[in-house]
Design goal:
This is Ketoreductase domain-containing protein. This protein is α/β, with parallel strands linked by helices. The chain is built from eight helices and seven strands, in the order βαβαβαβαβαβαααβ. Strands 3-2-1-4-5-6-7 form a seven-stranded parallel β-sheet, sandwiched between helices. Helix 3 runs parallel beside helix 4.
């Protein structure tokens, strides 16, 4: 067997193309900018926030390192939109190397009280959106590329006083899909992993009452909420060919040691 020299792999994303879904704000925005800082050209996907997506594109171009960006509208819970998103990514930049499935929604509530409309939105965005976009990207993504799915620590643990069984279940799907697709794409050396944020300052956290937010912050070893940039760093680690070389089918938990013993 030929010896493998990890130093032959790039430690940046120069010349690569990254597609980040749900990238107009929050964690997705931070991920898009971080990948651009590493040299990638970035497709900033958004559903309804055109102005916010345009601001992310402007922020990437302002980095001054040559990274380019375009905003592409698509509702990834639609098969047609997911297919179009990948096709327009390849049309814009000629290739696709990194897919980050970040787009998703949060709806909390007790299982017998959660409105079915909210349940359907969870399934549409968090399950169908990830599956449809991954399905569309597989034929397009370059061998040796990376797919990174954003899950959550709640796919593995329940948080007392924070009812979200349906949301947790959708993230459990993401974890399982990651492992299966990682096995499928291993002959092409495409790395497929999950990043699971813990309590992180985001639209989801901001929708909660202050007492719950404080409890979530106290559940971490560092007694603070994570930031979108914390999560972006974890994604970047997996996306870069050298640092992520020996990771596939894995779930990288970025949670500040959160135990949820609230």
């Amino acid at each position: 067997m030929t010896a493998f020299d990890i130093k032959t792999l790039p430690n940046n994303l120069n010349g690569q193309v990254a597609l980040v879904t749900g990238a107009s704000r929050g964690i997705g925005r931070a991920i898009a900018i971080k990948l651009a800082e590493l040299g990638a050209n970035v497709v900033v996907n958004y559903n309804g926030s055109a102005a916010a997506a345009a601001e992310v594109v402007a922020a990437i171009k302002a980095l001054g390192n040559g990274a380019q960006a375009v905003a592409i509208q698509a509702d990834v819970s639609s098969v047609a939109d997911a297919d179009r998103l990948v096709a327009e990514t390849v049309k814009a930049f000629g290739r696709l190397d990194v897919l980050v499935n970040n787009a998703g929604v949060f709806r909390g509530g007790l299982t017998d009280q959660l409105p079915l409309d909210d349940y359907h939105k969870l399934v549409g965005a968090n399950i169908h959106g990830v599956y449809y976009t991954t399905r569309a990207a597989i034929p397009a993504i370059a061998d040796g590329g990376a797919i990174i799915n954003i899950s959550s620590v709640v796919s593995k643990t329940a948080i007392p006083g924070f009812p979200n069984a349906a949301y947790s279940a959708t993230k459990g799907f993401v974890d399982a899909l990651t492992r299966g697709v990682a096995a499928e794409l291993s002959p092409r050396k495409i790395r497929v992993n999950t990043v699971s944020p813990g309590p992180t300052s985001s639209d989801m956290i901001n929708s909660l009452d202050q007492q719950t937010v404080d409890q979530l912050a106290q559940s971490t070893f560092f007694k603070r909420l994570g930031t979108p940039e914390d999560i972006a760093e974890a994604v970047a680690f997996l996306a870069v060919p050298r640092s992520g070389a020996w990771f596939t089918g894995q779930n990288l938990v970025s949670a500040g040691g959160a135990t949820f013993s609230l």
